[in-house]
Write a structure and sequence with these properties.
5 helices; globular
């Protein structure tokens, strides 16, 4: 597995292009912007984007979803967050002054679902808390954590469907069971590892 990160949009969200090392299929994690840049890079690499997997339904992670669909690329989101693709209040677009015409999902998923793109296998890990339907994606030794877990922090829970206790339980039961060397690729800011967060994340005192 190889990946490239594109920091996009007004809130500097991370979009990831994930692809096979020797060409072939690829998938994208989150679609907060940068459609043209991401697809042009995929073309230059000679890889075909088969799907976009959304970690959750907030506007800064879904704004370009419909552009991918218009290009014939499937868009997937958790069943619990699917409504956010068109619900302007809960996806926060209206509150942030963005005009967002909405999108649709070609597929929905839940905890434990597995997708295969060429030689890449992606496992869905349901991690509610930031939103009710927040998910992470595990591919090889990398965990795409969306807004659930950050380098030195955790996701906000003061938005619609967020809940702090649920978030911390998700991290403890789903992410802290992963190996220390698993790379964490978050929805904002810099990457980290499970081991680093286990040792230094100040929120993790709550998990003891």
């Amino acid at each position: 597995m190889k990946y490239e990160v594109f920091t996009v949009g007004a809130l500097d969200s991370n979009t990831y292009l994930v692809y096979e090392e020797k060409g072939g299929e690829a998938f994208v994690v989150d679609a907060g912007g940068g459609f043209e840049e991401v697809t042009e890079r995929a073309n230059s690499l000679g890889v075909k984007i088969s799907a976009v997997l959304l970690t959750h339904g907030h506007f800064d992670h879904i704004l370009d979803a419909e552009k991918y669909r218009a290009a014939g690329i499937r868009v997937g989101i958790s069943a619990r967050d699917e409504y956010m693709l068109t619900h302007h209040r809960d996806n926060l677009a209206r509150y942030m002054g963005f005009k967002f015409g909405g999108a649709a999902a070609d597929l929905t998923f839940s905890d434990g679902d597995v997708f295969t793109f060429g030689n890449l296998t992606v496992k869905v890990i349901s991690t509610p808390g930031h939103t009710a339907g927040s998910c992470c994606f595990l591919c090889d030794n990398a965990c795409f954590s969306g807004d659930t877990l950050f380098n030195g922090s955790v996701g906000r829970t003061d938005f619609p469907t967020g809940d702090h206790d649920t978030l911390m339980r998700s991290i403890k039961e789903k992410l802290m069971t992963l190996s220390d060397d698993v790379i964490v690729l978050p929805g904002h800011d810099e990457p980290t590892t499970i081991g680093n967060e286990r040792a230094y994340n100040p929120y993790f005192g709550e998990l003891c």
